[in-house]
Amino acid sequence: MFSRLRSDIQCILDRDPAARSKWEVLTCYPGLHAIVMHRLAHWFWTHGLKWLGRFVSMVSRWLTGIEIHPGAIIGNRVFFDHAMGVVVGETAEIGDGCTIYQGVTLGGTSLYKGEKRHPTLGRDVVVSAGAKVLGGFLVGDGAKIGSNAVVIKPVPAGATAVGIPARIIPSKEGTSADVTTASSKFSAYGITLEDDPLSQAMKGLIDNASSQEHQIALLWQAIEKLSEASAAGKGGRDCVPCDAALKECFEAEKLTQLVGK
Fold first, then answer.
1. Distance between CA atoms of 215 and 253, rounded to whole angstroms?
2. CATH of the domain at 35
3. 230/228 Cα distance (integer angstroms)
4. Residue 217 DSSP label
5. pTM, whole model, 2 decimals?
6. Cα(4)–Cα(26) distance, rounded to whole angstroms?
7. Rounded to 10 degrees, what is the CA torsion of 32, 38, 40, 41?
8. Ramachandran region of residue 52, left (φ > 0), alpha (ψ -120 to 50) or beta?
9. Which of 71, 84, 144, 177 could form a disulfide with 160 if both were Cys (CB 3.0 to 4.6 A apart)?
10. pLDDT tens by residue, 48-99
């Protein structure tokens, strides 16, 4: 029990730069308190003491602002950061090393008892502030859920889900989560570059437009040279359209900065 508690304290120290000591984490972090009280409530729940398990979870909610059903399964090194207003449903499962921020709901969309109604989070999943993960599906290892996203379908391992309803951004080949390896740097709130599919699409359009303008400018320059050579041979000068795009004026760099890339 104490080794597990030490592991929980250390994971907070690793992920929260505001944590200055183990004593501070032990006494001042409601996320840790909620985890400890949930383990007691879950023990009662699994040993047939259903009411007592619910009562302990209710006391934990009063004290921490985090509501975890005693039937939920929570792994090791799970960090509820700030976590006020977090709701974890009865059949939810949270894997080892997950990080869950404030306002997150791991909820169910079914009203039938006895079935899997709430999501399962794999290892090292990051669920950012205000996100809602609704349904009995799997969020794969190392996945990230963006702030305020509403996820209603499975998320592959290493992928990122953002938006309402959530759009899935596949992981890059050979990469996975923020915290899948010891050498990886943890990203607070799951924020990394290239997470927004709309900005990625805009950047692709900007790059394509810039490339096309460059090619058009080269074509007009070639036409101008041919026109000058032809005019020289005829002792005159052929006309080149005055609106020919001889120079590039497409501000690709400026537009790229506007879309935030």
1. 17
2. 2.160.10.10
3. 5
4. H
5. 0.67
6. 13
7. 160
8. alpha
9. 144
10. 999 999 999 999 999 999 999 999 999 999 999 888 999 999 999 999 989 9
